[in-house]
Amino acid sequence: MNQVALITGGGNGIGRAVAHRMAAAGMTVIVADFDHAAAEQVRAEIVDADGKADALSVDVTVAREVKAVVGDVAQHFGRIDVLANIAGGSFYTKRIDDFTWAEWKKVIDTNLKGTFLMCREVAPIMQKQKSGRILNTASNYGVTGSALRAPYSAAKAGIIAFTKSLALELAPDGVRVNTVAPGPTDTPRVMEKETPEGRRQRWSSAIPLGRTGQPEDLAELYYFLTTPESAAITGQLFHCNGGLL
Amino acid sequence: MRLQNKVAVITGGAQGIGRAIALGMGREGANVVIADLQGERARSVADEAQALGPEAIAVEVNVASEVSVKRLADQTFEHFGRIDILVNDAGIYLKAPVVSKTEEDWDRTIDINLGGNFLCARAFVPAMRKQKSGRIISIASSIAHTGAREFADYAASKAAIIGFVRALARELGPDGITVNAICPGSANTDMPRRHRSEEETMARLRATPLGHILEPDDIAGPILFLASDAAAYITGQAYNINCGTVMI
C-alpha cells in the first residue's frame, strides 16, 4: 500500500533530506514548509527523481492553518502514515536577560507548540487507521541545555516529554511516537553563519566521530523509525550526533 | 542486502535474541560467527545461517575467559580474515535477593555480562582499528534503567555496559568505529520463563503500552540498522526497544 508521509520543515536542511529519503522508499511525501518556494523546490526535486510528492505552505504555530492543511491532506490522500515534525529552529543566540517575551514565544511556539498542533490534528487520523508513526525533532541541547539558547533548549526538552506522553496515549491504537535528537548538523541555515573550516575547528575534537552531521545521516534514522524493523519502539529518544552526547 | 560480505561475530548467538540477530545478519548478507558457551546449539544456528547463503561457523566460547575469547578471535580471523561487526549478547541471569546472593554468583554475572564486553572488545578492536571501520553493538537491558528485584547483579552489569559503551565510543570514534547499546525490554525467549509459569510470562509480555509482544526479531531489526551504513553517524547511544514500557 502506498504510504503517505507529511513532513513539516520539509523545504530545507534535515526536513528536505527526510523528504527525499521517504520518497526514495516509495512513500508519497507531502513537503510542508513555512517557505512555500522551498517546499515547491523539494517537491520538484522528488518528482524529477520519479518520486511522488506534493508541496504546501503552513505556519505550524497557527492552529487554524494546521487544521486546514491536515484536513486537506487527509481528504486528498485518504490517509497519513507518517508525520515528521521537523519545522523548528533556535533563531537567536543570546543571554536570557536579552530575550524579549515575543522572541521567547517565537522559539517555544515554533518548536513545541507547532509539534503539539500538528500531532493534535494528525493523531485522530492515525488512531482511526489503527496505524501510524509520528517523529518529533528535539536536539542534543534538549538534554544538555545550552548557554545562549535557553528557550530552544526548553522547547526541545518539552518535545521529549511531550513525545513520551503522546506515545502512551496512542499506543493502544498501534500508533508509535518517537523523538529524533540531531546533534550539530550542516544544514544550509547553519552553514550561512559558519565556514566549513570554522565548524571543523569548533566541533572535530568534541565529536568522537570527528565530523559534524549531514542531513542525510539524520534522514536514515527518521526513515528507520518508520519501518517495521522499529515496530517495538515507541516513546523513545534517538540521538544522532557522532557521539557528542 | 545491507551487510553484504561483512563478517559479524555474535556472542550468545545460539538462542533467543542472539540467534535472531545472527540469522538477521545472515539474511542481510553477512558471514557470521555464532559464538556461544553451548557449542552444540551454536552449530545448529550456524547451519541455519549457512542455509541463508553466506558462510557461518560456530565457535564454543566462554566470554569471561581471556584464553577462550582469544581463541574466538583467532578462529574468526583464521576463517574470515576480518571482523566488521561485534555483537555482545552473551549474558546470564541468576535470581536471588542481594542479602543472600553468593559472591560466586555475583562474580559470574558481572564477569560474563560486563567482562565479556571488555574481553571481546579488546580482542577485536585492533583489527577494526587497522581497517578504520567497525561496529560494536552490546545488548544491555531495560533493567539497566529500572532495576529488578532479586536481579541486582544483572541490573548493575547491564547499566555498566551502557557506561562502558559510552566510554568505548569516545575511544574508538576517531578510528571510524561506532559503539552502541540496545536496551531490550522483556522478550519472548526462554529467559523470562525460567522463573515464571507460561501463563504468567505471556500475561507480562502482553502488558505493554503497544500491546505487542516483544519478539527476538523486534530486537534484531534495530541491531541490523545500527550495523548498517545507514547508522554511520550514530555512536555512544543506548537505544530502548521495549514496546513503550520504559521511556528514559
Description:
The complex is a heterodimer of chains A (245) and B (248). Chain A has 245 residues and is of the alpha/beta class. Chain A has a single domain (4-240), classed as 3-Layer(aba) Sandwich (Rossmann fold), CATH 3.40.50. Chain A is built from nine helices and seven strands. Chain A has helices at 13-24, 36-48, 63-77, 101-129, 141-144, 150-170, 188-191, 196-203, 215-224; strands at residues 4-8, 28-33, 52-57, 82-85, 132-137, 175-182, 237-240. Chain A has a seven-stranded parallel β-sheet, sandwiched between helices. In chain A, strand 4, helix 4 (101-129) and strand 5 form a beta-alpha-beta unit. In chain A, helix 3 (63-77) runs parallel beside helix 4 (101-129). Chain A starts with a strand and ends in a 5-residue tail after the last strand. The relative contact order of chain A is 0.14. The model of chain A has no long low-confidence stretch (mean pLDDT 97). Chain B has a single domain (7-240), classed as Rossmann fold (3-Layer(aba) Sandwich). Chain B has helices spanning 16-27, 39-50, 66-80, 103-131, 143-146, 152-172, 190-193, 198-206, 216-227, and strands at residues 7-11, 31-36, 56-60, 85-88, 134-139, 177-184, 238-241. Chain B has a seven-stranded parallel β-sheet with strand order 3-2-1-4-5-6-7, with helices on both faces. In chain B, strand 2, helix 2 and strand 3 (56-60) form a beta-alpha-beta unit. In chain B, helix 4 packs parallel to helix 6. Chain B is globular, with a radius of gyration of 17 Å. The model of chain B has no long low-confidence stretch (mean pLDDT 97). The interface between A and B is large, with 36 and 36 residues.
